[in-house]
Every structure is written in structure tokens, then in C-alpha cells.
Design goal:
The complex is a heterodimer. Chain A has helices spanning 61-68, 91-97, 114-121, 128-141, 143-147, 158-170, 188-203, 215-221, 239-244, 246-251; strands at 21-32, 35-46, 50-54, 76-81, 84-85, 99-102, 176-180, 207-211, 224-229, 232-238. Chain A is an alpha/beta fold. Chain A has a domain at 18-98 and 174-251: P-loop containing nucleotide triphosphate hydrolases (Rossmann fold), CATH 3.40.50.300. In chain A, helix 3 (114-121) runs parallel beside helix 6 (158-170). The radius of gyration of chain A is 18 Å and the shape is globular. In chain B, a hairpin with a 2-residue loop joins strand 2 (222-226) and strand 3. In chain B, helix 8 packs across helix 9. The chains are: A alpha/beta, B mainly alpha.
């Protein structure tokens, strides 16, 4: 929604509209053991936006998402979700706050059925009626899953597995959805379909932070984008500016 | 056999050494590569590989065949009566192995740890049951009337299971939790340590000899006769209770919220976290249930056999572990079936070649499974850690 057209170079200052920021990373440093994966990464996602995170392999995109959902803790800096610091509350608790994460590699429960996988997404919810509505919604978004609902998730095709991964994340009725490479390994037709669904999900009010190999597709879908290079934010800004930027065109859009 | 093979260890970069892969396990693709060069097996290699893959693929059928043969052998030796009695004994023993095996398999399934202390939880539970029965004067209650027996059972089972469950939870909390992301050898060694610790404490507290439980007299009498084989109420009780508990567990794991949390945590811990599942609580629950089932097995054991000893759980535990591996470690149904199969092997192997060989036979089977079919009979691949 709010494209506060500030060009390139991200800064986070602006604490006045805290409630509006669903995700607010403030200069985080993240390490895997001794290896530094992220350096002073600042990033924000506002209510209702689709934000794209692009960059080459190993740039730190997945690490950024893992930090947001609490799978890994930053050594420095702050992570704020819905305006509150979430230091050390743990991934399960963060999921319950309303962060849905369809992780890298899908990570389905391979020996459970499609339906059970979706049920697990709603694990921490108590409202049966709401769960039923959301299940119906997932089945409407992905009619294929309704047909396969009693099949083991591990036996599905890649595209179907991706649908389950997104569906499972949606079943928690998230306020914000983190999608890690939703198009990975999918046939072009399916990629379009998945992105169509992503826009639909967003249109119904879910904020989305998206990692995507296909930078052009990602930026066309998102209102804003961040470009990560070697674990740091290299560029940030509204999508159309990024698409128009010669650097981006050369490095990521193959133009 | 071999051409120029010479000393087995001397072959430089011998069998499969080049790729560093485990030659004996990955039979299919390694064919030509291992056959060339100075392999120890030389020309015999393809034949061996074929034999290996045949045994590996038909392991279940072969094992079942051997069991049927040994049952038949027993029939030839001692007629239908001996065979019938031994089947009964095997089922009783198998029921106990099955219950204990489930605890191993559940814990392995969720944190990939062979919980060596599990067998000792079984023993401790036997002593819990004695303590509970003595303190609450259950022995006289149980033998007073049928109603008294039911009441005594309704007291001793839940209380022992509760005590054992809490013991299991405590063991996990103290000894394994901090090592959850450590290299796998670390918690394994701790588990052995916990096992020795429990055994030491029991040796000091309960002494080195068998302790009579007083529960052997709880259930008596013959229920019915099949030919010359008399089936006692105890036998029915043992097998019936074990089956009941296993089906209850199956339903629990399939249907309930916590059961689903356990399964999903076992399959992918990271994904479970992202679904909002409290991993610590789920793992604690797994230890609780596994230990409670071991306690149920211990109560059954002491009612059936009438005595326990500080270290009975050690060997019984390893045999039950073999049952879990046989069924496919991590697979609950497999552990149940494996328990009964191991019971059959123990009893009929023993009746054919002499009882003193029973355990040697079981552990030979363990080695064979790990060599030929490490995934067990029900071949579900084991989840790997995130």
C-alpha cells in the first residue's frame, strides 16, 4: 500500500508510525557459528504490502526470513514484529503471533497427508469455525489440494508440494506471510498460477514478504523491493524504481 | 574366489574406498566400480552383491520362513502340545518386548537418540509397582475378590505409569535436552551414563538379588484349554493389555492434537516450530508416553513372572531395542510387530538349539538386520535432523 517513495538506500528511523510496520528489522547482524551471514540489515514491511527480497544465492535472503520467524537469533540489532521486540521468544511463539512461513525447501511433513499438513498449520488456533473457513479458502485457492487431501505429502509433485507449503502457512491465519522461493523448481505455468494466488492472498489483507529467484517477477508482484548482496542491503526502494535501475537490470534482470 | 587379493586390509583404497561410500549398503549403482581394481572379493563380487541384494529385499520373508520352520521343528520334536505352549510363551514374552520397544522407537523417531536408559526405566517401574502395591496393600486387595483385583489393577497401572512417565521426562530434561543439537554421539554417551546411574542406584537400594513382587498371585487359573495347551488368565491378561495399550497409543498418535504434534516434530522439527508447536513440550510428552508404556510392561512382567531385579531391564531393553530395529526404528507399528517376532525368535530359536542360545540368536539377528536391512521390515526411512 504505502509507497513512501524514498529512493534507494534503506533507512529505518521513522518510529512514529510503529503500528503500521508489520516487520521491522533494525541493523541486524546474524552469524552461523563464526560465519557472518547478515551485516547491519535493516528492512521493513508495512501492513498490506508485498515486499520482495532479491539477491543471488548466499546473499542472505533465507537467513533474513529465518531471523524474522525466530529460527535464528541476531547477534546484534533488533527484530520488531507488529511494533514489539521479539528477542528470544522462540519460533513457536512467533508463529503464534501471526507470522506464517513457507520455508526454503518446503519442509512438508512428508509422511502425513495433505489434509494433516494443513491441519498442522492451524495447530495453535482454537477457532474451529475459522479453521474450517480457511481450509475452504486454501482448497479454493488450490483446487488440486482438495483432490489430493488424503494423499501423503511426500508423494506429491513439486508444484503440489509448494501449494501445500503455502497452504499450511495460510492455515495459521497469518498477519504476515513469509514465502521463500515459491516458484523454485516449478513449471512456468505453475509459477504464474502461484503468483496469481500470492496476489489474491495479499488482496484479502495478508502482508507478504517474498524471496524469489526470478527478480523481475518478484518486483512486478511487489510494491517495494530489497536487494541483498553478501549479507547486506545493497539497494532498496519501490519496485518500479528498482526495475528501472541500470544496476539491477544488469545484475538481476539479465537486460 | 579371488585373483591376486592377498591380505584383506592391504588393498590400497580397497572396496569402494575411492568414493568414501558405504559399499555394502548401496548395492545397486556401485557394481562396475567395485568390481574393477584389486578388490578383496575379486571375481566373486557380483555374486556377493546379488546375494546381498536378494537377502536385503527378502529379509522379512526369510525371517518369517525361519520362524515358521523353527515352529515346525518344535512341532516335530515335541508335538502339538509343546508347540502350542511355546507359541503361548512367545506371545507373552513378545507382548512385553513390544511395549518396551515402542518407547525406544518413539524417542528415536523424535530426537534420533537411542535412549539406553529406557530399559532401566522398565526396571525402575517394576520397583515402583512393588512400592505402590506394598504401600497401598494392593496384594491382599487383589487376591480378595475379582472386584478387588480390578481395583488393584486400576490403581497400580496408572500410578506406576505416572511415576515412570515423570522419570522419563526428568531424564530427558536433565540429561538430553541440552545436548539436543550436539553431535549425536554426545547424548548417546549420556544415555549410557544415565543407564549405569539408574542401575547403580537400584543395586544399592534393592540389592543384587531377585526381589519377589508379590504380584505373581494376583491372577491365577486356567481360562481354557486348546487341546493339551492350557491358556491361563495371566496369559490372556498380558497379551490383551499389551494389545490394548498399543491400539490406544496408535489411536492417540493418529488422532489427537498432541499425537499429531509428535509425528510432525519427528518428521521435521523446523517445520513443526513454524507451525507454532512447542517442541520441548512435545518431546517431554514423547518421553512420558514411552516410559509409561515401559511401566505398563513392567507391571505385566511382575504379575506374570513374579520377581524383578536391579538389572533385568538392561538385557530386556537391548532385546526390545532389537525388536524396534527389526520393525524399523522410528516406526511404532513396526516396534509392536517386531516385539512379537523377537518373542517368537527367542522362544523357538531357544527350543530348537537350546535356551542358552536364545540371546545370542537375537543379537545375531540384530547384526543381520543392520547389515542387510538397516531400515527394518517396515522400511520407513528415518527422518534426518534439520
Amino acid at each position: 500500500m504505502s509507497e513512501n517513495g524514498q529512493p534507494v538506500v534503506a533507512t529505518t528511523a521513522d518510529t512514529s508510525t510503529v503500528t503500521d510496520k508489520v516487520i521491522d528489522l533494525r541493523a541486524i547482524d546474524v552469524y552461523y557459528g563464526r560465519v557472518q551471514a547478515l551485516t547491519r540489515v535493516s528492512l521493513e514491511v508495512r501492513q498490506g504490502e508485498i515486499v520482495a527480497l532479491i539477491g543471488s544465492n548466499g546473499a542472505g535472503k533465507t537467513t533474513t526470513l529465518r531471523t524474522i520467524s525466530g529460527l535464528i537469533s541476531p547477534r546484534k540489532g533488533e527484530v520488531l514484529l507488529f511494533g514489539k521486540a521479539i528477542q528470544g521468544i522462540g519460533a513457536a511463539q512467533i508463529a503464534r503471533l501471526g507470522v506464517g512461513h513457507a520455508p526454503e525447501g518446503r519442509r512438508l511433513f512428508a509422511r502425513m497427508t495433505v489434509r494433516e499438513n494443513l491441519d498442522m498449520g492451524a495447530y495453535s488456533r482454537g477457532d474451529r469455525a475459522g479453521i474450517r473457513t480457511d481450509l475452504e479458502r486454501v482448497y479454493t485457492l488450490f483446487p488440486r489440494l482438495r483432490e489430493r487431501d488424503s494423499q501423503l505429502a511426500g508423494s506429491l509433485s513439486g508444484g503440489e508440494q509448494q501449494m501445500v507449503a503455502i497452504g499450511r502457512a495460510l492455515m495459521s491465519a497469518p498477519k504476515v506471510l513469509l514465502l521463500d522461493e515459491p516458484s523454485l523448481g516449478l513449471a512456468p505455468i505453475l509459477v504464474d498460477a502461484i503468483f496469481e494466488v500470492i496476489r489474491e492472498i495479499n488482496a484479502k489483507g495478508t502482508t507478504i514478504l517474498l524471496i524469489e529467484q526470478n527478480a523481475l517477477l518478484a518486483l512486478k508482484t511487489a510494491v517495494r523491493g530489497y536487494v541483498l548482496e553478501n549479507g547486506a542491503v545493497a539497494l532498496a526502494g519501490p519496485s518500479e524504481e528498482l526495475i528501472a535501475s541500470p544496476d539491477i537490470q544488469r545484475a538481476y534482470l539479465g537486460m | 574366489m579371488s585373483d591376486q587379493s592377498g591380505i584383506p586390509g592391504a588393498a590400497p583404497g580397497g572396496t569402494g574406498g575411492r568414493s568414501g561410500s558405504v559399499t555394502l549398503v548401496d548395492q545397486a549403482n556401485l557394481g562396475p566400480r567395485t568390481a574393477e581394481g584389486s578388490s578383496f572379493f575379486g571375481a566373486a563380487a557380483p555374486v556377493l552383491r546379488l546375494a546381498y541384494s536378494l537377502i536385503s529385499k527378502n529379509f522379512g520373508a526369510l525371517l518369517l520362513g525361519l520362524i515358521v520352520l523353527s515352529i515346525f521343528g518344535t512341532f516335530l520334536q515335541g508335538g502339538a502340545t509343546l508347540m502350542g505352549n511355546q507359541i503361548k510363551n512367545a506371545l507373552v514374552l513378545g507382548a512385553i518386548y513390544a511395549l518396551v520397544a515402542i518407547g525406544y522407537t518413539m524417542v528415536y523417531g523424535i530426537i534420533e537418540l537411542i535412549n539406553f536408559a529406557h530399559g532401566d526405566v522398565f526396571t525402575v517401574s517394576g520397583f515402583y509397582a512393588i512400592f505402590i502395591a506394598n504401600t497401598l496393600h494392593l496384594n491382599s486387595l487383589a487376591t480378595s475378590s475379582f472386584g478387588g483385583l480390578l481395583l488393584a489393577l486400576a490403581i497400580v497401572f496408572p500410578l506406576s505409569m505416572l511415576a515412570a512417565g515423570l522419570t522419563g521426562v526428568a531424564i530427558e530434561f536433565v540429561a538430553y535436552r541440552r545436548l539436543r543439537d550436539a553431535p549425536r554421539l554426545a547424548p548417546l554417551i549420556t544415555a549410557i551414563g544415565v543407564s549405569f546411574l539408574i542401575e547403580g542406584v537400584m543395586l544399592v537400594r534393592e540389592g543384587p538379588d531377585y526381589v519377589t513382587t508379590g504380584q505373581a498371585s494376583w491372577i491365577n487359573g486356567t481360562a481354557f484349554k486348546l487341546g493339551q495347551v492350557s491358556i491361563g488368565y495371566t496369559d490372556l491378561f498380558v497379551v490383551g493389555t499389551a494389545l490394548l495399550l498399543m491400539f490406544a497409543l496408535g489411536a492417540f498418535v493418529q488422532r489427537t492434537r498432541l499425537g499429531k504434534a509428535m509425528r510432525s516434530t519427528a518428521q521435521d522439527r523446523t517445520a513443526a516450530l513454524l507451525c507454532g508447536i512447542d517442541i520441548n513440550r512435545t518431546i517431554s510428552a514423547t518421553f512420558f508416553i514411552g516410559s509409561a508404556l515401559a511401566a505398563a510392561a513392567a507391571v505385566i512382567y511382575s504379575i506374570n513372572y513374579g520377581d524383578v531385579k536391579w538389572n533385568i531391564g538392561f538385557r530386556l531393553g537391548i532385546i526390545a531395542f532389537t525388536a524396534a530395529v527389526l520393525g524399523g526404528i522410528g516406526n511404532i507399528v513396526g516396534a509392536g510387530v517386531g516385539g512379537f517376532l523377537i518373542g517368537l525368535i527367542y522362544v523357538f530359536g531357544g527350543s530348537l538349539v537350546g535356551g542358552e542360545w536364545s540371546e545370542a540368536l537375537i543379537f545375531a539377528i540384530l547384526v543381520l538386520i543392520l547389515t542387510f536391512r538397516p531400515v527394518g521390515l517396515f522400511g520407513v526411512e528415518v527422518t534426518t535432523r534439520a
